[in-house]
């Protein structure tokens, strides 16, 4: 009998080391009475997004709720108010689930979280307090909702290839009737690109080259404006008749500045 009492004492002292997870048959109220120091936190028995905080004045367990979409992470842990994204703490975990109902807004299933884009595999939504911000995955990665992060395309089988990239899954694809814009396909998904100033897409080489060398994209010719002939001095005004004043002659226009021509060194290779 003394052996069982010694084992029970060890278990009681081990409880706070694991977030104070209540053991079977032990309520949060009892845990707070055993930990009279105020501010002690314990997770809820059934819901990831609720937890208990011990009141130092009364010894009661006060139920607290995480912001909508977040789950209890532990004292002074997580993103905000002791809470973090559920997938970071492994919720649901087979025994506990989210207890609150989603408070959805535009693009956000919950007030806080990371959510997939409805039509794009390379973008996703980051929601904070119900406000959504569009995010773009780094080059050659796709958003994987299973891990709530950007991942290699081979790990995102549910994302179908875009028709624009069906023949060229990786590389540039010209846009009809456009000299400066083109699609860059990465893993079967297009991203809109633009050539630098003075360059145009060569549909043969699929590179940005001097616009003057790309048929149909040559810049319009510029005709320099000739200098105006100098006019002679204006006749002297009749000082006796103030009402007949002659306009001042126009000054000759100086030479036009040289036209900008991109040098061959300005060509940027794409792809």
Automatic annotation (TrEMBL):
Q: Where is this region: Disordered?
A: 215-271
Q: Which domain of life is it from?
A: Eukaryota
Q: Could you tell me which residue ranges the Chitin-binding type-2 domain spans? A: 29-93, 105-161, 162-219
- Where along the chain is composition biased (Pro residues)? 249-260
What is one cellular component GO term in this UniProt entry?
Answer: extracellular region
Report the Gene3D superfamilies cross-referenced here. Chitin binding domain
**From the UniProt record, which GO molecular function terms apply?**
chitin binding
Pfam families per the record? CBM_14 (PF01607)
The keyword Repeat appears for this protein: yes
Instruction: Tell me which UniProt keywords the record has, alphabetically.
Output: Chitin-binding, Disulfide bond, Glycoprotein, Repeat, Signal
The signal peptide annotation in the UniProt record is: 1-20
Q: Which spans does this entry mark as compositional bias, Low complexity?
A: 233-248
Full protein name: Chitin-binding type-2 domain-containing protein
Q: Where does this protein come from, organism-wise?
A: Tetranychus urticae
